[in-house]
Every structure is written in structure tokens, then in C-alpha cells.
Design a protein that fits this description.
Oligomer: single chain
Radius of gyration: 29 Å
Structural class: alpha+beta
Number of helices: 14
Distance between the termini: 92 Å
Length: 391
């Protein structure tokens, strides 16, 4: 390489030319005057407990790439609105954390954001390539069935928007509560009704088909609710585990929806729709004479449908109730992190010294709760099977 590539080699022992001083000073001044801003549309999640750490997720609006940062980095990123230079950020950081922001940390963070295309003016990354329409085998796999899931759920949302208003949903929600309590209140009636349904193929088969379509609408309800709160629906398709086949709906930026209420509504929307679809059966049953032979069968239908809907709200993975509990607790990957914590805890207290007290209480409590729920479900299933055999 020629000496013109290294101007400092001709400057004697100083290692720099006469023009390097002003140029370096100008570069340093420009760097200090730089007022970085996040790219428009960058998604930032609220604080999430993940193992012993509190993290925030940051996601690119085009590429979909996401990564984690800690609370201090999140604070700095929140200041990048194009109005603050490094001195302003350092002053705000010192006021918040009572310590100075190290220059190398500032440089490293800007470099990370820039290389990931998260700063205004950084190169626009290419959107992710869509995956294959079908994956898996005949026995287990999935197939995307809608070309543009986001547009499809958007059209459904526009169509249903009038009935999504509170004035329309409050009476429906009240009717769902009344129906659920009325059916579950009389244990003897729903046990007898379940037996009548199971022994009536002409009623059982059509109702099983109804439940399958209800589950499909359950998935679409997640997508429509997500669109209502500004979410992005990336896929709608079918997933099978032979011989069962179910619809699925994937919401991409679920963790980035605004506010806790939005996340809870999106997670609960499927079970709510399942229950609302049972209201015509409840009305039909209420209008029948108590001695009508169709009444016990309808009771069994209502009981089966209610159990199917409410089972989705149990806080065990991969059910909707598990996601809702995670949002309420502000915790990510609750079940895997609980398993990781318990594995470390068996090695002694020193192995979990990095976990804050809240994390320790949360993971132990969830482990106990999950074990109790599994035992209750197993006991209930065994009791139901015994009852059917002894009937």
C-alpha cells in the first residue's frame, strides 16, 4: 500500500499531518452535534421479565428483525427523537441513573441501531421473504391458505366494526356471563345433558362440525381484534396433526400492541367468540318446555361448548390464558423461564443469586400453579371417564 494511504507516515514522530488536527476537531464537533432519531415505525415493547433480567424488545418495522435491550439502553433509545445530541443524552442519563453515560456505550449503541437499520437515514433493509406455503409432512405440518392475511383481516374488521363498539358488545358479554353461570350452576343437569349428547349421534355429529368451525372463527377473532388495535396479521392457514386439522392465525407484533388492555382483548377474543356463538343454543333451550326431550341435548351442547371455550383461558402453554397471564405479570416466556429457574435452583441458592426477589417469587408461584392445574385437569378427566363407564 502506498504512503498516500497513510498520510501520517510522512509527519515524523507526531504521527499526523498538519491538517489532521482541524479535521479531527471538526469530525469530533460534528459527532457531538449529531442528533440521532429512530426510524419511523420502530416498535418498542414495555418492560418484560425474562429470567433474571428485565428487557425491552425492539423490532424493525420492515424487516421484522427484533432484539433485546436492557432498561438503561431503552431509556437512551427513548431519547432519540432528533432533538438531542450526545451532551443532552448524557445529561438526561446522569439525571436518571446518577452516573455518566460512558462514551463507548453511546458509540456502541448507535452503531448497533445503525447497522440494524433502526436510525433515521440508515439504509432501508429488504422486507423478509415469505416462507413456503406448506411445511411438514402428511402426518404433521401447516399450510398457508390466505395470500394476504393482513388485508383479509382488515376487510373483516371494517365489516364488523359497527358491532365492535362497546354499546353492542356489553349486552353480548352480559348474555355470555349469564349463560355460562346458568349452565355450570346445575352440575346434575349438565352431566345428564352431556350423556344425552354423547348417545345421540344425530345431534353429536352436527355439533362436532359446529365446534370445528367455531374454533376456526376463534382464530379469525384473534386477527380481527389485533387489527382493531393496530396489529399486523402475517399468516392465516391450516395446521394439522393427523387426524386433527385446525386453522391458525399469526399476529406478528402482538407484544408491541399499545397498552395491556389491547393485549388481553386480543388474547381473549377467541374464547369470547366461542362463547358468543353458543348464545342461539342457549336461547333455544330457554324457550323449550322443561319436559321437551331436546332440552337435555341442548344442555349437553352448551356444556361442551363452554368447557371448550373456557379451557383456552387456562394459563398453561400454548393456550390463550397462558399469554394473558404473561401480559398481566409482564413476563416473557413464562413456562420456559420457570423451568430454567427450577433447574438452577436445584444446584443451590448461589446458582440463582442473579434473580431478583420478584422473579424468584413469580417463577416458584407459576410452577406450583401449573402443577396444580395439571393435577386438577387430570383428576377431572379421570372422573368424567369413570362417570361415563358407570353411567
Amino acid at each position: 500500500m502506498s504512503t498516500t494511504d497513510h498520510p501520517g507516515t510522512a509527519a515524523g514522530h507526531t504521527g499526523r499531518t498538519a491538517g489532521d488536527g482541524p479535521a479531527a476537531d471538526r469530525a469530533a464537533a460534528a459527532a457531538r452535534a449529531y442528533r440521532p432519531a429512530l426510524r419511523q415505525g420502530v416498535l418498542i415493547s414495555p418492560a418484560l421479565l425474562r429470567g433474571p433480567r428485565t428487557v425491552h424488545l425492539i423490532k424493525h418495522p420492515v424487516s421484522g428483525a427484533a432484539f433485546e435491550v436492557g432498561p438503561r439502553e431503552h431509556f437512551v433509545i427513548g431519547l432519540l427523537d432528533g432533538t438531542r445530541n450526545v451532551d443532552d443524552v448524557v445529561a438526561a442519563y446522569a439525571e436518571r441513573f446518577q452516573r455518566r453515560l460512558p462514551e463507548e456505550q453511546w458509540t456502541r449503541l448507535l452503531g448497533l441501531l445503525g447497522t440494524r437499520g433502526l436510525l433515521d437515514g440508515s439504509p432501508e433493509p429488504a422486507p423478509p421473504e415469505p416462507g413456503p406455503a406448506r411445511t411438514g409432512t402428511f402426518w404433521a405440518g401447516s399450510r398457508r391458505t390466505v395470500a394476504d392475511a393482513h388485508a383479509t383481516t382488515g376487510r373483516l374488521h371494517r365489516l364488523l366494526r359497527p358491532v365492535l363498539r362497546p354499546w353492542a358488545q356489553l349486552p353480548v358479554a352480559a348474555a355470555v356471563v349469564v349463560m355460562t353461570v346458568a349452565v355450570l350452576w346445575d352440575a346434575r343437569a349438565f352431566l345428564d345433558g352431556t350423556w344425552e349428547l354423547l348417545t345421540s349421534p344425530l345431534a353429536l355429529v352436527p355439533f362436532a362440525v359446529f365446534l370445528w368451525f367455531s374454533i376456526c372463527l376463534h382464530e379469525l377473532a384473534h386477527g380481527v381484534a389485533a387489527r382493531h388495535y393496530g396489529g399486523v396479521v402475517s399468516e392465516i392457514g391450516l395446521r394439522w396433526r393427523f387426524p386433527a386439522m385446525m386453522m391458525y392465525c399469526t399476529v406478528d407484533n402482538y407484544l408491541f400492541l399499545p397498552g395491556l388492555r389491547a393485549k388481553l382483548v386480543v388474547a381473549a377474543a377467541g374464547a369470547y367468540v366461542n362463547l358468543a356463538l353458543l348464545l342461539p343454543f342457549a336461547l333455544w333451550r330457554a324457550l323449550l318446555d322443561p319436559a321437551d326431550p331436546a332440552r337435555p341435548v341442548l344442555t349437553g351442547m352448551l356444556f361442551a361448548g363452554i368447557v371448550q371455550a373456557l379451557s383456552n383461558l387456562v394459563p398453561l402453554p400454548p393456550l390463550d390464558g397462558y399469554r394473558m397471564l404473561g401480559h398481566l405479570l409482564g413476563a416473557a416466556n413464562l413456562a420456559p423461564e420457570t423451568g430454567a429457574y427450577l433447574t438452577l435452583r436445584r444446584r443451590g441458592r448461589d446458582a440463582v443469586a442473579a434473580y431478583p426477589p420478584r422473579a424468584r417469587r413469580l417463577y416458584v408461584s407459576y410452577a406450583v400453579t401449573a402443577a396444580a392445574l395439571v393435577l386438577v385437569a387430570a383428576a377431572g378427566t379421570c372422573a368424567a371417564v369413570v362417570w361415563l363407564f358407570l353411567r
